[in-house]
Every structure is written in structure tokens, then in C-alpha cells.
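pls read this stuff:
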Amino acid sequence: MKKYIILIAIIPISISSFACEICGCGVGNFYMGILPHFKKGFIGVRYHYTTYHTVMADDATQYSYDYFKSTELWGGINIGKKMQLLAFAPYNFNKQVGDDGITKTDGLGDITLLANYKFFNHTKLFKNKKIEQSLFIGGGFKLPTGKFNADVSDPMMVAASTVNTQIGSGSFDFLLNTMYNVKWNKFGVNTSATYKINTTNSSTVKYGNKAIVNATAFYNIGSNDLIVSPNAGLLYENIAVNLNNGKTIASTGGQALLATVGVQVKFDKFSVGANFNIPLSQNYSDNQTKIQSKGTLQFNFAL
């Protein structure tokens, strides 16, 4: 049975590593995104980008425009009929333009490994149309392979961009996720939930845990040789506050509701896709930080 699995996390539930000036809603984020169709395995390259604009509430002269990009190698393989293994390795590019100048950082980000277990995969006929359903439950961990070199001895630097624009979180973190997919003829809906549990790194910083819930509808146009699948949906994310040495870092964390629109094109063993996120409501850093634009491009090959 063909599997159409969509899990959009930002933040891209992100492996995208993006951040903002004060909210701390980036660093080491996990992003699964739209999985390509594959029977045995796949390998691909993805490009993520996110831009933020921050203005301090008590001083409008303190601001920043933040540009966070990631080029990522990712892949997956099916083990038997029930298990699915996935791996993500990003290379991150961060840039901030603010009242205190321009800063740039880049390097290997945090590598993530995941395993999903297929609890069921049912197919039945209804009014001469085939209905397909599947449920995956899984989890994994994020390795501290990205560089973290912030000096947290200065309390002011903990809440500032020095901490939030690191290439990696410096911590070993855990992920839990579930995906439910239903497809009726050429129309389908994918729902998913992901929870990322962060630990404290060696510099006593703990980035806030993150929860992502999304639902995406898609429609397949074409035949087995060429399938075009436009999709649209909603994504909600909630990020807890950051901690330093067990104490809350002010103006961190937040939540957002975003609309997602995109398209995926499959031809033979190749697939390309793009998706964009449109903020409907958001509250990061006590409304001091705003998402301006966010999206993903990908190119994949089925093994």
C-alpha cells in the first residue's frame, strides 16, 4: 500500500536551526516535514529558512532581523513491515542584522535519529472507493553535534542572541511523535503530534520543551508515473521558557498558529516538494518577536 505521510513540525517542528533575538524558539529544533513516498528507503536534501523580526518593548532602538537557514541531508529505511528508521543531519547558516551590527555563524547542526513503529495499516472499500488508514508511533533522540560556545557567566548574555543563535543546543534531547493518516481515493488527511524533551547542557542552559500538533489535507493529481499533490493545513506549536541553572530566562518561549501550504511532485523514483508557513497568530517573547517568513524545499530519491 502506498504511504503518504506528512509531519510538519517547525517549526518547523525544526531539524532546521533557527532562532530569534530573545525568545529562544530556535536552537536545535526538530523538523520532520513531508516524508517522500518510499517502499524500501530514500535519501534526500532539504533547505529550510526562517526569518524573524524583534523589537524590544521597552526600547524600540533595540531590534534585530534574524535569518536562519539550513541545508540538510536526510534519509530513511524500512525494516521489515513494521519499523521505519530516519536520520537528519543539518548544516546551519545563521545571520543577525541589528542595532549592534551584523553577526554570522555556520556549521554542522545537531543530528537527529528516529524510529517509528507502524501500529496498523488498514485498507477497505466504501462506495467502491478505497480507504487507507495508518498509525505510526515512535521516538528518538537529538545528538549534541552542533557547536555551543555561549558564555553564560553574564546574565545579560543568557537572554540575548549569544545563546539563541548557537549552531547547536549542546544537549542530548529526546523526541516522541505519532502520525495518523487517512486516504480516500485521491484525497487524504495527515495528522501528527510531536513533543521534544530538552535536557540541560554542560553550560547549565536548558532550552524550552516544544510541542507541535498539525493537520494537513492533500489531493493527488495524475498517475503512478507523475503525481502532483497540493496540500494545505494548520500547525500549532508551543515552546516552554528557557532555563539557566534552573532559573527562568525572561522573555523566552511562546506559541503560534500557522497555516501551511505546499506541493509535492513525484516522478519515477524522484520527488520534489515545497511548503510555506503563514502565521495566523503568534506570541513569542511577550509579543516582541514575530515570524516574518518560513518555508522548506526538498529533493529526494527513493532507493
Remarks:
- DSSP finds two helices and 19 strands in the chain.
- Confidence is low (pLDDT under 50) at residues 1-21.
- The CA atoms of residues 59 and 205 lie 26 Å apart.
- The domain at 6-302 is CATH 2.40.128.130 (Lipocalin).
